[in-house]
Amino acid sequence: MLEIKDLHAEVEGKQILKGLNLILESGKINALMGPNGSGKSTLANVLMGNKKYKITKGKIIFNGKDITDLPVDERARLGLFLSFQYPQEISGVSIPNFLRTAYNSTHEKIKLKDFKKLISDKSKLLNVDETFLNRYLNEGFSGGEKKKSEILQLLTLDPKLAILDETDSGLDIDALRAVSKGVNKFMNKDKTVLIITHYKRILEQIKPDKVFIMIDGKIAMEGKSKLVDQLEEKGYGWIERD
């Protein structure tokens, strides 16, 4: 699905990614963890093609295609999706209008009634009602509502690779359960998820097949889900020392 080869990237002249190598397989849920400042969010933005981040060396291969230099819109059409750590408010644009515009940009257009049914079906998975859908995108939303909105986008747009950057941040128990349910519903053998998180709790509901530890711009360790328990117990110092 995704292969990253010797990736170096900088932001505002500061080198953040320093020779990162990573392979994500189809049908797998992956967790990316690491201390603050290790480069996790930078990696997410680089994968999505954010122009603020400059790749200085290396390649990103997605389903056999080199996407290193592709713009954001082309990556989205190929099936990449990024859930932002801090979703932006867009005043005057309702959630359905935003979703339909995004859907038509990445899929073949469908009739309005079919699209309304699609949103309705996906909304039910997240316990989202009509009142929520009639609001402007993220305007006045709580942290949990913003994350639900993004998972609704994920389910509606149905990408191949979902990169979820701290989706669990600020969620209460009910919102975390709804978001986790949405992500688990999204997954199948043709999809891949990369969850960037600091916390074990979301990984108790979205079980990772593989866990990657990122330190100082590189993948320092990878393993199975039990690695999360080791981090909970020991922190990151033991990895850095090794």
Describe this entry's structure for a reader.
The structure is a single chain. Helices cover 37% and strands 29% of the residues. The chain has a single domain (28-51, 71-241), classed as P-loop containing nucleotide triphosphate hydrolases (Rossmann fold, 3-Layer(aba) Sandwich), CATH 3.40.50. The longest helix has 15 residues, at 143-157. Helix 3 (95-106) runs parallel beside helix 6 and helix 6 runs parallel beside helix 7. The protein has nine helices and twelve strands. The strands form three sheets. Strands 6-9-10-3-11-12 form a six-stranded mixed sheet, sandwiched between helices. Strands 2-1-4-5 form a four-stranded antiparallel sheet. The mean pLDDT is 89. The protein has helices at 40-48, 72-78, 95-106, 112-125, 130-133, 143-157, 173-186, 226-234, 237-241, and strands spanning 2-11, 14-24, 29-33, 53-62, 65-66, 80-83, 90-94, 136-137, 161-165, 192-196, 210-215, 218-223. By secondary structure, the chain is an alpha/beta fold. A hairpin with a 2-residue loop joins strand 4 (53-62) and strand 5 (65-66).
